[in-house]
Amino acid sequence: MLDSIHANQAKKMVEVNGISVPYAYSDFDKEYKALRENIVLSDYSHYSKVKVEGDEAFDLLDLVVAGDVAEIRDEQTLYTVILNDEGEIITDLYVMNDDDTYILLCEHITADSLIALLEPYKEDLDDVEIEDLTKSHAMIAVEGPYSWELATEVYGMDVIGIPFHGFIALDEDTFILRAGKHGEFGYKVVLPVDQAQELWDTFEEKGEKFDLVKAGLELHETTRLENPYYNPKTVGQFSNDPRVLQLQWMVRYDKEEFAGRDALLEKREQPLDKKLVGALIQSEKAELPIMANDQVVLEGESIGVVANVGYSPSLKQLIAQVILDEAYAYAGIDAYKIKASDGSEYSIQTTATPFIQNYSMIVNPNENSYVNPDKHKNMLDQLKAKEAEAKEEAADA
């Protein structure tokens, strides 16, 4: 969609859901630092985008998704999953409610596949229409602790008031959604393709003073390990059971009907035998022969498997998601080891996730700024300044 821009700038392109997007733009460390400390600009046009409208649009979606669509009002978004007949996750997705017209955003399956999941439930409904917006609409994102500040320069101060998983509809074709899978502030702009290049250029131009960096999907693979979200390419290769993956919060069990409900409720009657937890690998090395499918052992006996592993630049160590037998799936245990395929063993400490404390947690859009010299960059700097001021006043007293 933005091929003319990316072709001359991106280091590597990939095709996802039939859409070509950047996998890497420049230096990974530079992109990572920008996401965690200021702002990155990314092209998320590979997300499948589907509009569902009509008097029975709510009825259709509430039959399909596992979350409760009734919980979201106008300009609110539900982050949930769709299950198969076995009660396992097919995909996660965002459901945006725009005055009872719904926009679905989904990155892990194509729009055709998403529509195919909706169609069987549409047969008994008369007033509902489904439209694929994937190729007519792009999605551009600014993300990072100060992305809100750049977004306000482009769209005005109303951006600051958007709650997490809320959005603003600028018109019937353009939406600003506050969402992200990395723990930082993030704003995704869904807009017609013919307006995308102008917005990209605007963000680039206005983002210079914020030290904005363009970023590709490679970056987001790492940040989604540090702040875990459902990923069918990693943990999904080992389990898609929302209970095992600790994603029960994405399912509304007391709904009377939704796809996969009966199978999921039947599973709930059975004891849970495995559970996903985080693991800190006790080594200072950035690279080790550890990979997915390696065994987690206790005194030589297998108690689980590595589902995902990677290096955390923030923690400066390797981290992993491991699926353990339920009896051993607790945080804070340092007795386990990962046995690599070459026979070497590495000590781990299990931990709750997310793995890191995000910088965005100490940035207050109402009081802080990246570019305004009259404001502190974050709340810690504010606190230190107040403490220093108090000490000076005490010394002068």
Automatic annotation (TrEMBL):
GO terms for molecular function: methyltransferase activity; transaminase activity. One of its GO terms (biological process) is methylation. GO terms for cellular component: cytosol. Signal peptide: none annotated. Keywords: Aminotransferase, Methyltransferase, Transferase. The keyword Methyltransferase applies. The keyword Manganese does not apply. InterPro entries: GcvT/YgfZ/DmdA (IPR028896), GcvT/YgfZ_C (IPR029043), GcvT_C (IPR013977), GCVT_N (IPR006222), TrmE/GcvT-like (IPR027266). Residues 4-255 form the GCVT N-terminal domain. PANTHER family: AMINOMETHYLTRANSFERASE (PTHR43757), AMINOMETHYLTRANSFERASE, MITOCHONDRIAL (PTHR43757:SF2). This is Putative aminomethyltransferase.
